[in-house]
C-alpha cells in the first residue's frame, strides 16, 4: 500500500487514465450504420444485410440496387 504523495499521484493517474477513451457507443453505432431500408427506415451496416432484411421482412418487395 502506498502512502502520502505516492497515493495522491496514483489516484491522479488513475483518474486521468479512466477519463481517456470513454466514448458513447451510440456515436460509434451511428458511424457504422450506413444503409437505411426505405420502407421501414431500419438502419443497417451494409448492402448484404439490406438484402437479408428484405428477404425476411419484405418478401414481396424487391431490394433496391447497390448504387443507392
From TrEMBL:
Residues covered by region (Disordered): 1-25, 47-68
Locations listed in the record: Cytoplasm; Nucleus
InterPro entries: MBS1/2-like, ZNF706/At2g23090_sf, Znf_C2H2_type
Pfam families xrefs: zf-met (PF12874)
Comp. bias intervals (Basic and acidic residues): 1-19
Lineage, top ranks: Eukaryota, Viridiplantae, Streptophyta, Embryophyta, Tracheophyta
Name by which UniProt lists this protein: C2H2-type domain-containing protein
Keyword Mitochondrion belongs to the record: no
One GO CC term on file: nucleus
Entry annotated with the keyword Amino-acid biosynthesis: no
Annotated ranges, domain C2H2-type: 35-63
Entry's Gene Ontology molecular function annotations: zinc ion binding
Keywords: Cytoplasm, Metal-binding, Nucleus, Zinc, Zinc-finger
